[in-house]
């Protein structure tokens, strides 16, 4: 067997063989000696010693001998490669390349960015600046007070609306025959075929308004929206609209007193919605208006106190078909009336009692969005069977509610049982005597499903004798109105007592305009207050007239915690009394489905512990939920660039409660760069001179001056507003003097950069092709940049444009290049390629931080950098990473001359997170190196040169797995598929036609959901994921190793590139290790929980702060008003159609 000679190192690739032949043939020009030289070279390569003793060549003529020798070399070379397969790459050569490349790119970056000049300018002013330590406790207190003041103004506006509405109702006498034309927001500015305004339409002047996101509105008056399922000329509607006309003047007056107000509204208990400013309402694609104000969280929370609800549904055999469909829709509608301050469970009964979610057996769970959606999925799967045993279900419900009350769990306020059935053969008086009489602490609401009225009296008795309400639901069109009745009953104690509790909602998206306007993507909170009837004759009935409210855009609220005061990595956040995120820079409420952005199903029930997940003991969450004031510190793994890059921070958290609201505010200051802030003074004239330059911009999402107060200012940019204020042209502007002082100072210090960059650009003969943009940013949100390249030649066309949010100062974050440069040694450039989805072409960004030091205190003043094409670095790398053929190789042990353009050598430049910048393969640029070469990356991780860091995403969306057909019936799968389709068609499509087209044109998004078959595959659902990030360990400057890959070995050399965050890798390219070392990807993996763990997580009850007020009882309540046969007000023709439909179904 052949073996390697220890005295002759083996380099058995074809490149190595070529190098050996060159070595042996130096000084020899004889053609006849080539064969002998080649033979010797091969023998040396394979370590065979004396070639003459090992090989005997035939004497068959020169041509035959040459041919045989060539074949022998090829075959033996292959054999040698199989035996050894190792090449020696000289580390000293790679080190020289890295040093040269580092100097080249450092010189290039320094020259075109002007980094040394900018650092010198800030160094020159260190003697005149004042460095102050940021006091987080004072800062969070100040922010909270300002937010409290702002929210207080909204509450005062709502109180004025409530008072005006109640006074208007008190002076209004109900008129059954009232005729009154009003502006219906769906019909305004609409004409008939003859060009005449249609009834309830008419001309309604609309103008685009900057304050309302450029939507066409009328700030002179409000208008009325009526859902499709409500008759817009119903006497109740006409009387309510006429009465509420008095709100118009209050709307306008409120807006004049507080120009920061957005939408103001009155939601009537009869179903109409008065909105100011008035808008043109856009129906959905079916021409239907599904929005019903009474379904909105602000309405429900204001109308009732917190509640515990057990929904008991009959799934016995008699509930089959339409009855079960109506029952399911009733359950879903009840669930939609619950909020995060409520608690719920669902029990289904037939021959036995079962919980629809077995994991929730015997308990109440918070009715947050997650749990409500989970229940809906389970309800959809309910099937009927057996005989109905309602007594056991009622007993079980009372036991759960009683236990919750005794243990201090649930809402500790209203308690109710919702019984959904097609009949009860007895009244179960003995059950109520055992559990509920005489206090009747638990209200029972009953919903009789279907047309059958045989057992109606028993079902009604149950409700009327338990302070509840009875309704008869015979069609899907009845569900909405009948479910809403229970809210009016629960509101009675509060109405009778005239307790005007102000409520604040959790974060939500403005679904009023969701389907048609970009406004919908803004997160809002609403403040609302109930409106009661003051009339003495109806006092005991506790009549709720409706709810008034206004919206607050959370972005506007968070502007009161300015970015410049929190530092590079600092931020502010808000949570509710339940621990859910109201606002946080890491909250991601939207996801992409195709090209469309959609809200995640659980976007407003993201817990603080799911964002600040390093708080493993939830100490921060618990303290904030309890409304405490305090501080704590955490070591955190934070990510930038959409999670691709990890940074390690030491964060200090400061938190306090916002009085008169259920919210708590927290701010984060990062050690190092959030600890200090510096100020410097310059003259106004000097600052203005350097501020008014074409290369300068300000962060337009920051608030330098309030431009939203005066309508005349709303079209100004922040820079324009600042200049008008400083020049005295707009003295009434309210501006942040501290921020303006910092901005003017930075403008003066950075002013020389414009002249420096311009001089370089004008010297075209010395310009490097591909260097496109020089830029800088400062802690005051000031940015300067100069384009070295015209737009027609520029590769990075979107860089530093208005669409390039990642690289601009925004309300949520500093630019990516600024944040990353701050974590790297000052004076050294950090290079990276932007993500593929954010860059326009193959570009590289290099940036470095600039500091100010006073004594021992250092603060980041800004960052400066250059954007260039990738070809700039590639060309310099190709020039350096190739030894010429005449290289003196006498002192080099290994492949010489070494060239990266050789076919068996792979060369890379990667950054400190393992992403490829330079590779032979153009497609590798921007990819993670582990995907390109898993063997080398795995070895680097094992050697400690790279560290794997696990990150978690508790807001992820994952695809659901398809349901496979059971293997027990493969031959019948087509039959079952056809049967399922037919079943769906008969039970849903026909039902849809009957209920929707023939009866009051009723429509809601829940109704639509009930009839659209939901695909079980490729549907994105909320999930938890874990994903890796990798970071270079800078203490390891260089390394090399040999990877054994079956029948070959791969050598590689890694060298840090000085004065940068880059590494150079030279890898043997002719040894494929992909079988032994699969690629390392950054693809997130779903965290799977087994059934037990999943159940424990679902059952866990986190700390929460209950609302302060509860209205569950009043001695004057008229409990005899407990319902009867339900009805929907329809026009005559529609009523006849409904009756016809009923006959058809029967």
From TrEMBL:
Molecular function in Gene Ontology: metal ion binding; voltage-gated calcium channel activity
Pfam family of the protein (one): VWA_N
Gene3D superfamilies linked to this entry: PAS domain (3.30.450.20), von Willebrand factor, type A domain (3.40.50.410)
Keywords annotated in UniProt: Calcium, Calcium channel, Calcium transport, Disulfide bond, Glycoprotein, Ion channel, Ion transport, Membrane, Metal-binding, Signal, Transmembrane, Transmembrane helix, Transport, Voltage-gated channel
Domain annotation VWFA: ranges: 308-490
Coiled coil: none
Compartments reported by the entry: Membrane
Cell membrane among keywords: no
Record SUPFAM superfamilies: vWA-like
Main subcellular location: membrane
Any one GO cellular component localisation term in the record: voltage-gated calcium channel complex
Similarity comment: Belongs to the calcium channel subunit alpha-2/delta family.
Official protein name in the record: Calcium voltage-gated channel auxiliary subunit alpha2delta 4
Organism (species): Poecilia formosa
Biological classification of the source: Eukaryota, Metazoa, Chordata, Craniata, Vertebrata
